[in-house]
Specification:
36% helix; alpha/beta
Length: 135
Amino acid sequence: IVVEEALYCKSRHWEIIAPSKNFFSEFDIEYARYYLESRRRRGITSRSLWEKVREQKRTPGNRLVTPEVMRERNPRYLPSVMHGKFSSVMILFDDKVALISSFKNLSAVLISSEEMMQFMKTIFEGLWSVSEEVS
């Protein structure tokens, strides 16, 4: 239900931090298709912070990064000091903070608070400013 809330956000924009192995990359292939199609159909764009994977131009789920994905997700690579340190995904949208655990733990928290979202967005902005552009 947390992912559904994010998919139907009013702003149609996310700020997202995702480790290389995460809920979305590990979940059922049919749900992944539904998620990607819903996101595309709703026109959701993002600024995404990813762990750098071995092969360049791949998403955290190890999918090839197409020009369309680059436009939709606007990715940057997190500083290497953060790699392998977390397994949850954070999505900021509207006045909400969504925290989604790894597939192994299957839990999520949705915080509906402009104040908390702005606090987490400030942290996101700091990470964004020191993250490497995907070339």
